[in-house]
Amino acid sequence: MEKIESVNNHDDLSSDRVCAACHAKVGKAKFCPECATPIEPPRPTCEGCGHQPEGTPKFCPECGAQMSETS
Ligand SMILES: [Zn+2]
Ligand SMILES: [Zn+2]
Predict the structure, then answer these.
(1) Is residue 39 pLDDT above 50, yes or no?
(2) Residue 36 has pLDDT above 80, yes or no
(3) Model pTM greater than 0.90?
(4) According to a count of CB atoms within 10 Å of the terminal CB, is the N or C end of the chain lower?
């Protein structure tokens, strides 16, 4: 009887990001493990005004609305 390797499915829903170049799943990597393309961090969009501020501010620098966290 063959032993089936248990596949550890560490599918983190919050890290479901893919490489823009080769579409490999990159998780939280900063560079694609397949083709070394730099992975850009997700840009949060303000629900109030649609502004996409730099970094991950908690509040929109344009209208002061609370930014929804993408984590
Ligand atoms: Zn890639
Ligand atoms: Zn805003």
Answers:
(1) yes
(2) yes
(3) no
(4) N
CA of 37 to the centre of ligand 1 (A): 5
Q: How far is the CA of 36 from the centre of ligand 1 (A)?
A: 6
Which DSSP symbol is given to 13? Answer: G
Q: How far is CA 68 from CA 10, 11, 46, 47, in A?
A: 24, 22, 8, 8
Q: How far is the CA of 34 from the centre of ligand 1 (A)?
A: 5
CB 39 within 8 A of CB 19: yes
How confident is the model over 39-55, as a mean pLDDT?
A: 87
